[in-house]
Write a structure and sequence with these properties.
single chain; 332 residues; eight-stranded antiparallel beta sheet
Length: 332
C-alpha cells in the first residue's frame, strides 16, 4: 500500500526526533578541561585539549552511531593503519607559522629517529603547540552545542605567535550529523609569517575501511566531479569521502564557505585516508606554481569557514551539492 506524501511526511516527523526538533543536546567538561558533546545521551564527539601539541575532536560518531574517525594514535586497534601519528581525529595545523611546526608533533619525528637515528632532529627542534586557553562559550540548547575555544599558537620556547578563535557548532540534520568549524586566526602579538605548505589546514582522518587504498569501495569526489587520487590539490567548493564502515556505506563531506580565505580551497585529500581543506598551499602542491606564503599583519585576522556533514550513502544520496548551496547562502 502506498501512503500519500503528506501522510508519509507525518510519519517521518513522528519517528525522527531531528525533524521534530526534540534531540537533547548536552556538553560536559572533562577533568582535563576538554569537553564531551552528546546527543540523546550518546557521544557525538569529544574535544581533547591535553594529549598532543594541538586540540582535536576524537572520536566523532556519525548518524548511525558508527565511529567516523580513525582510532590511531589515541588507541591501537587491529585492522587500522598506524601511519602519521599526528593525524588525530578532526584537527587543524600548519607546518610553518613563524618558523614553528604546528602540523606534526614530537612523536612524528621521534618515530623518524627510531627508523634512522638523527633524521628527525632538525624538525623536532621546531615543534610548537596550539594550546587551549579558555572557552569563550560552552553551551547546549535545543538546537545543538557550541564550543567556542580561544587557542594560543606558541613556538617551542612558549612565545605566543598568534591566537585562534575556534567556534565549533554541533547539530543534527535529517539523517546527518553536522559540525561547523568557524576559525579566525588573529595576529594578536605582532605580524606573523604563514608559509606555503602542503601539510596544513583543517583535517579529518577517516576510518581505515573507508580509505580508497583499502580497496573496499572507498571513494573521494569533489564538487567538480574529480575523483580519488586526481582530487588531490584541486580547488573545489566541497569534497566528499565515503565508503564502508561497520557494514554500511557512510561518508563525510567537507564544505568550503564562499567567505572563507582563498575560497574555493585546494584539497589535500589522500587515498590512504587523510582529508584536508588546505587554503595555504600552491607551491606546496606544485613547485612551478605561485608561492602563497604571506605575512598576517599585526591585528589582522584570517577567516576560515567549513562545515562537516557526516552522512549515510554516497554524496548523491546525501545531497551534498544541495547542502553546499544552502550553506553558501548563510552569513558567515
Amino acid at each position: 500500500m502506498k501512503f500519500p506524501a503528506t501522510l508519509a511526511l507525518a510519519f517521518a516527523v513522528l519517528f525522527n526526533p531531528a525533524l521534530r526538533g526534540e534531540n537533547k543536546f548536552t556538553v560536559e567538561k572533562t577533568a582535563s578541561d576538554g569537553a564531551v558533546v552528546k546527543v540523546d545521551g550518546k557521544v557525538f564527539a569529544e574535544y581533547v585539549v591535553d594529549q598532543a601539541n594541538k586540540p582535536y575532536l576524537a572520536p566523532v560518531f556519525g548518524p548511525t552511531g558508527s565511529q567516523m574517525t580513525r582510532n590511531y594514535p589515541m588507541k591501537t586497534v587491529d585492522g587500522e593503519t598506524h601511519d602519521h601519528p599526528h593525524h588525530r581525529g578532526l584537527c587543524f595545523g600548519h607546518e610553518d607559522v613563524g618558523g614553528s611546526e604546528f602540523w606534526a608533533e614530537k612523536k612524528t619525528f621521534e618515530e623518524m629517529n627510531e627508523k634512522k637515528p638523527g633524521s628527525g632532529d632538525a624538525r623536532l627542534a621546531h615543534v610548537g603547540s596550539t594550546k587551549h586557553r579558555k572557552y569563550a562559550e560552552l553551551k547546549a540548547d535545543k538546537n545543538g552545542v557550541v564550543i567556542d575555544d580561544v587557542i594560543d599558537w606558541l613556538d617551542p620556547q612558549g612565545k605566543k605567535l598568534m591566537e585562534e578563535h575556534r567556534r565549533m557548532t554541533f547539530r543534527v540534520g535529517e539523517g546527518t550529523r553536522i559540525i561547523d568549524m568557524d576559525q579566525d586566526l588573529i595576529a594578536s602579538d605582532g605580524p606573523v609569517r604563514i608559509e606555503d605548505k602542503k601539510d596544513a589546514g583543517l583535517s579529518i582522518r577517516v576510518p581505515t575501511s573507508m580509505a580508497v587504498d583499502s580497496k573496499k569501495g572507498g571513494k573521494i569526489i569533489n564538487s567538480e566531479g574529480i575523483t580519488d587520487a586526481e582530487a588531490w590539490a584541486k580547488r573545489a567548493k566541497w569534497c566528499d569521502y565515503h565508503g564502508p564502515v561497520d557494514g554500511d556505506t557512510l561518508g563525510v563531506a567537507m564544505l568550503n564557505h564562499p567567505s572563507s580565505f582563498r575560497y574555493p580551497t585546494p584539497w589535500h585529500v589522500r587515498t590512504y585516508g587523510l582529508f584536508t581543506a588546505n587554503a595555504f598551499a600552491s607551491k606546496g602542491f606544485d613547485k612551478k606554481a605561485e608561492d602563497w606564503g604571506f605575512e598576517l599583519k599585526a591585528g589582522d585576522r584570517l577567516k576560515l569557514r567549513h562545515r562537516f556533514i557526516f552522512h549515510s550513502g554516497d554524496e548523491k544520496s546525501a545531497k551534498i551539492a544541495e547542502a553546499w548551496e544552502s550553506y553558501s547562502k548563510e552569513a558567515k
